């Protein structure tokens, strides 16, 4: 009973993640979140598909807010 419920929830999470990853990658979501992904090729999108599928709640939140990745603020970047 518990195993069936767990696998059902995991299956729903994976299905929602797969649909989100397809929409996110086809609609240009990585470009809004990470400026370095502007020149991303189809191969790049294929490589990040599993990660988008797994981390879809975080990506959905960032995409909805159109938040970009935090900028690095180390001593080397501050000097230049």
Structural class: mainly alpha
Classify the helix fraction into a percent range: over 70%
Taking Cα atoms only, what radius of gyration do you get, to the nearest Å?
16 Å
β-sheet strand percentage:
under 5%
Summarize the structure.
The protein is mainly alpha-helical. The chain has one domain (2-79). The protein has helices at 2-26, 29-33, 42-54, 56-65, 75-79.
Descriptive key words:
5 helices; single chain; 80 residues; mainly alpha; elongated
In words, what does this structure look like?
The chain is an all-alpha fold and 80 residues long. It has one domain (2-79). Helix content is 72%, strand content 0%. The chain has helices at residues 2-26, 29-33, 42-54, 56-65, 75-79.
Topology overview:
Blueprint: H1 2-26, H2 29-33, H3 42-54, H4 56-65, H5 75-79
